[in-house]
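Thread: Newbie trying to understand structure tokens

Hi all, I'm a second-year student working on a class project, and my supervisor (Dr. K.) asked me to get a predicted structure for one chain before our next meeting. I've only ever worked with sequences, so writing a 3D structure as a token string is new to me. If someone could post the tokens and maybe explain what I'm looking at, I'd be very grateful. Here's the chain:
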Amino acid sequence: MILILGGTSDSVSLARLLHKTLIEKIPAMRITVTGATKWFIPEQNNNFPAEIHVLREQLSPERLSELIIKSRVVIDATHPFACGITSAAVNACGELQVPYIRYERPSFVQSIGMPLHVHTAKSHTDACSKALELTKKNQVIGLTIGTRSLSLYVQRLKEMSRMLMVRVLPVPESVSAALECGVPMNEIIAMKGPVSTTLETAFLKHWNVSVLITKDSGSAGGVSEKIAATEAVGIPLIIVERPRADYSVGIETTFEGVAARVRAAVRG
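---
Reply by user tm_fold:
Sure, no problem. This is what the structure looks like when written as tokens:
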């Protein structure tokens, strides 16, 4: 079995590519793609070959090890900010001696020179501080950073009398998480990104956003559209840099690179 740790569109694309270039030549091989919730890939939108199996569940350390034991190779295609599952996978693969391949969509911050209105932050705490420096009381700060670190922003920014525009995925878990963090309902937008520059610009204008904060999720995360939209509106954009991780096996940033290493692993 080839195990793909996913939760993003990258993992689905990788599964399809590997099936086309590899699995058809090795009929006995199967691909398992994991996703954190049932919303990752809706049941009705599967359309996968029989050799691709999708798991919609949160993976405990025990369950992760159980899957890795059965695998010929593990591809970690989780989100660049999903540090917990990545660390667990690296450790489990090392202990079980299963080849581990890390795929990350290319970093936007590292790939181009940043325009003058774009600021980078080393962490979410750093991003909060910079947002406070760039705004005044009662101004609106836009957040497109997910819900995992949302409570930190709500606590610090609300304490300093900032208003928020929080965009989260349109699923019950994300909306509930935002509400539980103390974000008022009228400050929540539930929508799956990325969105066009035109729509991004419209959001910023409609909510009168003074600064936007996002994460370095790469082109697939809509960073380029956010850069263009904030520039059009004339406001700062703060991009939270990716967590630093020491991958002794290196990082692949192309599907072709992953496929080559998978071929070597399953034939080795």
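A couple of things are worth pointing out once you decode it. The longest strand covers residues 209-215. The domain at 108-240 is CATH 3.40.50.720 (Rossmann fold). Feel free to ask follow-ups in this thread.
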